[in-house]
Amino acid sequence: MCYEVACIIVTAMSITAPRTHPALDWRLRFGALSLIWGFSFLLIKVGTEAYAPFQVTLGRLVFGTAVLAAAMAVKRERLPRGARTWGHLAVAAFLLNALPFSLFAYSELTIPSTLAGICNATSPLWGMALSLVALSEDRPTRVRVAGLGLGFLGVLTVLGVWQGFHGLDATGTAMALLASFSYPVGWIYVRRTLAGTGHSHLSMTGAQLLLAAVQLGVVTPLFTTFPARFPVVPLLAVAALGVLGTGLAILVQYGLVAEVGPTTAQMVTYFIPVIATGAGVAVLGESLRWSTPVGAVIVLAGAALTQVRARSSAPKGVGVEEGVRVRVVGGRSRSSSRP
């Protein structure tokens, strides 16, 4: 997911990662991340077959937080300090985790996981549209504006606008699109409020997921009843969604960003709807109209165009990608939001 926590926080906060060479090639990790996030929509669908959407989201956040807590313990990282930082993290947790995760879970009660995966691919489109308004340094270009228009044309194709959206659940589809919209809203908020805090990305994200889990822990009992039984397969799906789709995926994404940069790492976004569609059709037996894959290709093409930026004149040794300055300081990789 392009605007999943990993990609967003890396492009807005400090990064302190040792310059190591992982044993596993980055291309293999890139492929694994694509599969993990692509199958996440299938796992949501399986989880909601037995548990309420809020319960699926809560389980996802609890398992994901546990993975990051373990990683923090291994690296001896501490949670960030400061009431103001925690206040901003609480808002970020709602916009980037609690809200979109819950919306996707509710949407898949009435729409196929394939459609949810494709709706997720609209995040770069929403992000580009919002950044033109909210971020003064993000200037529009003809190519990017054309990509925005092309992307939303793809959305209309997926929805089958010429048929009056026949056969689609309007509420479920709107929830999935709203979830995708929530990611760039959270990204802009994080970029404006939490850039340059000095805390490591691991501690910040660990705190954010913890706060999201607390938020769902408060809300879930108010709107759901405790399950009378715990079917194994849906429970395993929720556990996998948290451990793999949230916790491990974030750690893998951070490693990719540190090694190949955010621009290359976020290309995973363009593989997710393809994998989500294939998984939904092959595993869950979901039907697929011709307009869905055609529209998805148009959406991805538009999203790719919105990421095209003018060449930077940064001096040698400094790489600027996605509004982030990355440089090597004292043997460590440092990243900060560009003013």
UniProtKB/TrEMBL annotation:
Protein name per UniProt: DMT family transporter
Keyword Lipid biosynthesis: no
Cellular compartment(s): Membrane
InterPro entries (alphabetical): AA-Vitamin_Transporters, EamA_dom, EmrE-like
Protein transport keyword on record: no
Pfam family, one: EamA
Family: Belongs to the EamA transporter family.
Origin superkingdom: Bacteria
Membrane topology: Multi-pass membrane protein
TM region positions: 26-44, 50-74, 86-107, 113-133, 145-165, 171-190, 202-223, 235-256, 268-284
Keywords assigned by UniProt, alphabetized: Membrane, Transmembrane, Transmembrane helix
Residue ranges of every copy of the EamA domain listed in the record: 33-159, 172-306
